[in-house]
Write a structure and sequence with these properties.
Blueprint (H helix, E strand, L loop, with lengths): L3 E11 L2 E12 L2 E6 L6 H8 L7 E6 L2 E3 L4 H6 L2 E4 L11 H5 L14 H15 L14 H15 L3 E5 L7 H16 L3 E5 L3 H7 L2 E6 L2 E7 L5 H9 L19 E9 L6 E6 L3 E5 L6 H8 L7 E6 L2 E3 L4 H6 L2 E4 L3 H5 L6 H6 L7 E2 L3 E2 L1 H14 L16 H12 L8 E5 L7 H16 L3 E5 L3 H7 L2 E6 L2 E7 L5 H9 L15
Parallel strand pairs: 3-8, 3-9, 6-7, 7-8, 13-20, 13-21, 16-19, 19-20
Antiparallel strand pairs: 1-2, 1-4, 4-5, 9-10, 11-12, 11-14, 14-15, 17-18, 21-22
Length: about 500
């Protein structure tokens, strides 16, 4: 029997902030409802209320037309509700099977955990998803993409009647996204009510039936997916027509000067990787999840050990033993997981912006010059239009897009003197309006002569932003495409080609 979920007059207030105001909509069983809005529109707050993680200030939640109150996540799960958050809710030191069956471990006759049954049941779910994961593998050792798949499998295992997905595909490859979409289609056919939060328009139009748009905590409109367009949705979200995101960019022409040359770079995860980045050039690094893109960026930043090859910055060989040495040489990294690796969440914007140069801001007895730190933060807030009432606001209280802007603001202050900027999934979980701002900032940095390495799982943005694209497969470079030849088909051919095939023989080109 199909389930229904209804939000009726939902409001939520925090001190000084009205996060949600009179939200009303119904999600019907057998349908996928998209929840769309800019970062900070109230989507995550609404899902936290649904999951029992936070109480609503006013309004009601109805399941099958009956008013229901959730005082904890346990209450929501008992009512048949699962929320898959963008921030994974996993226990990294436990195995995949222990995470999947947490709270419902199969027991044997003596009341002990039946590990054989636990392994078998976990393997059954993994096989349904078509994944290559060992049920006994420690979750913390998995890639971020596979951790996300474990999060999705947790909800699938509960067989909940109402499932909310919060940016589920952000760390996933095209192959994994296809697997997840098949699961959603199966849930939809079984009469589940599904809420789907994503900033990826192609996903919205592919799998959803209805769209609710939020802006500044208010419900702007409710539309049938088949009866709307991407332009109409964007205008509803941002309150203006932003036009063609890519054609409006003010671009740069790279110089012939090489800022970075990588020769036969090898690490425990990549082998014989070679490429160049010129001053003012945006070079894309594409490939499926696990191809080695992140590992290349981490090696260039001194975060992972190098076992062979050379790195040259402006023609001079370097071998960074730590990120500190890379930063001092003008190399900066915006990491794949901004919350875990890029920010100190419970420190202020000012503290986060000042971190790379804190040693240069000391005076007198070694105390940090708070005035200089504040100046850097104020400039970052202004340059990147970071939405905050004060530079002393905790980074944890910002939306994902504004958190990403804090990282960019940190690396592009005049104190850091960045020459090479490594961007790993810089727009993950960010709304279309903020993406457009970040794209232009990246182009502006290139116009200043900074070399940019741009890594993204969204092929559309790599193709449209990069001057050249190197494609990785199995830890190695399988080819390079100039912008004129950069199509999704060509990139995917290189990303998935047989190593012995012709695809890997494509010559390197300049745009």
């Amino acid at each position: 029997m199909a389930k229904t979920l209804e939000f009726r007059g939902i409001g939520k207030s925090f001190p000084g902030v009205r996060a949600l105001d009179n939200v009303n909509f119904k999600a019907e069983g057998g349908k996928v409802l998209a929840l769309l809005g800019e970062n900070g529109a109230g989507k995550s707050t609404l899902l936290k209320i649904l999951s029992g993680d936070q109480p609503a200030s006013e309004g009601e939640i109805l399941v099958d037309d009956k008013v229901t109150a959730f005082h904890s996540p346990h209450d929501a799960q008992a009512a048949g509700i699962s929320v898959i958050y963008q921030e994974r809710q996993l226990m990294p030191s436990l195995s995949v099977m222990e995470n999947l069956f947490a709270g419902a471990l199969p027991k044997g006759k003596l009341g002990l955990v039946d590990k054989n049954e636990l392994y078998a049941e976990t393997q059954k779910i993994i096989s349904e998803f078509g994944l290559d994961i060992d049920p006994a593998e420690e979750v913390g050792r998995l890639s971020i993409a596979n951790q996300q798949m474990v999060e999705i499998m947790k909800a699938y295992r509960r067989d909940s009647d109402i499932i909310a997905y919060d940016e589920p595909t952000a760390p996933l490859s095209e192959k994994e996204i296809e697997l997840m979409f098949k699961v959603i289609e199966k849930q939809k056919a079984a009469g589940k009510a599904i809420i789907y939060v994503s900033h990826r328009m192609n996903e919205i139009f592919r799998i959803t039936d209805e769209i609710v748009v939020l802006k500044d905590g208010r419900q702007v409109t409710t539309l049938q997916t088949k009866e709307t367009s991407e332009a109409e949705l964007i205008k509803s979200m941002v309150g203006r027509d932003i036009g063609d995101t890519y054609s409006n960019l003010r671009r740069n022409t790279p110089t012939d000067d090489v800022i970075l040359e990588v020769r036969n770079l090898s690490t425990p995860k990549v082998k014989n990787v070679s490429f160049q980045i010129h001053k003012g050039e945006i070079v894309g690094l594409a490939g499926l999840v696990g191809a080695g893109r992140t590992e290349v960026a981490r090696a260039l930043f001194g975060a992972d050990p190098i076992t062979g090859g050379e790195i040259l910055i402006e023609g001079k060989p370097v071998r960074f033993r730590s990120p500190r040495e890379a930063i001092d040489a003008g190399v900066a990294l915006c990491p794949e997981d901004r919350k875990e690796q890029g920010l100190v969440m419970y420190r202020s914007i000012a503290d986060n912006v000042a971190m790379p140069v804190v040693n240069y801001l000391k005076k007198g007895l070694g105390f940090v010059d708070r005035g200089q730190a504040a100046t850097l933060a104020e400039r970052a807030v202004a340059d990147y239009a970071i939405k905050t009432p004060t530079i002393f606001k905790l980074v944890a209280e910002l939306s994902g897009g504004n958190q990403q802007k804090v990282i960019l603001g940190r690396w592009t202050s005049e104190k850091v003197k960045t020459r090479l900027l490594l961007l790993d999934e810089p727009t993950k979980g960010i709304d279309v309006g903020t993406k457009a701002e970040i794209y232009q900032k990246i182009c502006d940095l290139a116009r200043e002569g900074i070399g940019v390495l741009f890594i993204s799982s969204e092929l559309t943005e790599v193709i449209n932003l990069a001057d050249r694209i190197y494609v990785m497969r199995g830890g190695s470079i399988s080819g390079c495409l100039p912008r004129a030849e950069a199509t999704e088909e060509n990139v995917l051919t290189l990303a998935m080609a047989d190593e012995t095939g012709d695809a890997g023989k494509r010559k390197e080109g300049r745009a």
